Amino acid sequence: MSKFCVSATWDDAPHLSASVKAELLSGIPPYQRDARTKGVPQLGSGAIYPVAETDIVVDDFEIPVYWPRAYGMDVGWNKTAAIWGARDNQSGVIYFYSEHYRGQAEPIVHVEAFKARGVWIPGAIDPASVGSSQVDGKQLLSIYRKLGLDLTTAANAVEAGIYETWMALSGGRLKVFKSCRAWINEFRTYQRDQNGKIIDDHKYHLMASTRYFMMSGRGIMKTRPVAPDTQQRFITPGQYNGNWMG
Questions:
Q1: Which of 69, 94, 98, 222 has its CA 20 to 30 A from that of 149?
Q2: Do 34 and 42 touch, CB atoms closer than 8 A?
Q3: Alpha carbons 138 and 214: distance in angstroms, whole number
């Protein structure tokens, strides 16, 4: 017997008036509002990041060239993932604007995808990569560096990383592009059990990448190098960090 799921929003319920919706909404916790009103799958009290999706997901836009960037990277044979962040220095808000999410591929395959986003962008990588043996017992960190990535090992304090991420999300200092679908899907189901343990933590590769970014990536963010004679076409005074190309 086949099964299927149909999502429904409040707009599909004509008997709910605007006043009734407003009254119901006032009694729903923020982290449950998307699920109750739009049919978006969302966790209850076990959600690690009980933040309404509508508060953090934004439409994609072109990242200004003078915004500093970095990424967090989680490695493995079953899945290698990364999330790229850019910071608006005027507001202090960081935007996750691109993601990598691929399994069962050699390091060179992942590296080409990373270089396509900017080989100059530094990354904070899973510290387990120092001793990982994905290929012939060699260290993944060494392999990725030799292939041209600018990487530093990230601090892997799980609870501290979750706290930093939670504070940034709830405080409006971390936003996510709508196109980062894999990140959003992990965010929706990232939860703890009744004993406070993260459920199936090994499968949340982009959530791990997020922790690495928040703990170590923010401190290594760089602005895209540009040639001196193109300075005025891309930046305004005081917005560049001095990393010229050449």
A1: 94
A2: yes
A3: 27
Taking the C-alpha atoms of residue 208 and residue 125, their distance in angstroms, rounded to an integer, is 10
pLDDT tens digits for range 79-104: 899 999 999 999 999 999 999 999 88
Specify whether 78 is located in the same domain as 147: yes
Q: What share of the chain is helix, strand, coil (3-state, %, to 5)?
A: 40, 15, 45
95 inside domain: yes
Together in a domain, 130 and 75: yes
Alpha carbons 21 and 75: distance in angstroms, whole number: 44
Task: Indicate the SS3 state at residue 60.
Answer: coil
Instruction: Name the token pair of 176.
Output: 């996510």
Lowest-pLDDT range of 3-7, 154-158, 172-176, 202-206:
3-7
Stated length of the chain: 246
Residues 11 and 126 in one domain: no
Q: Please give the mean pLDDT across all residues of the chain.
A: 82
Say which residue, 11 or 237, is predicted with more confidence: 11
Range of the domain at 92: 57-220
For residues 2 and 63, membership in a common domain is answered with no
Q: How many domains does the chain have?
A: 2
Residues in Cβ contact with 68 at an 8 Å cutoff, skipping those fewer than 6 apart: 86, 87, 89, 221, 222, 223, 241
Q: Tell me, rounded to whole angstroms, the distance of Cα 190 from its chain centroid.
A: 13
Q: Are 204 and 210 in contact (CB under 8 A)?
A: no
Whether 133 is covered by a domain: the verdict is yes
Entry pTM: 0.74
